[in-house]
Prior knowledge:
The protein is an alpha+beta fold.
Amino acid sequence: MQESHVVITHSLKIPITELQFRTSRSGGHGGQNVNKLETRVELLFDVAHSSCIPDLLRQRLLSSLSSKLDSLGILRVVAQDSRSQWKNKQLALGRLAALLKSALKVRKKRVSTKPTKTARESRLRMKKARGETKRLRKVVIE
């Protein structure tokens, strides 16, 4: 039995009806299977126009997944690892869920820091020592 939703978080579930699956012939191993069956699965999800995503989450998804979306705001996930179309569909659904879940995580803002006075002095001491070592290696011709 196939589930009717893909669970991303406890508050966000994507109905299967909003996902579009395309199949095609897969490359790689499989012998005759590769030549005859369409086992490669391409999952398309319209992030920009999905009715199940609240506006706040949609903006976060669009910004964090911008490199993975096409110009229409459609996310494309491909799976062709298995020789079975059903397994590849399950893999694609899992990858979609993982991708959306990681995109929705709120990242901590980086706090810029400065090196301590001791660290700066230590760095300069090491530079002086390296310079002195190199100076002593020089061959002086008179």
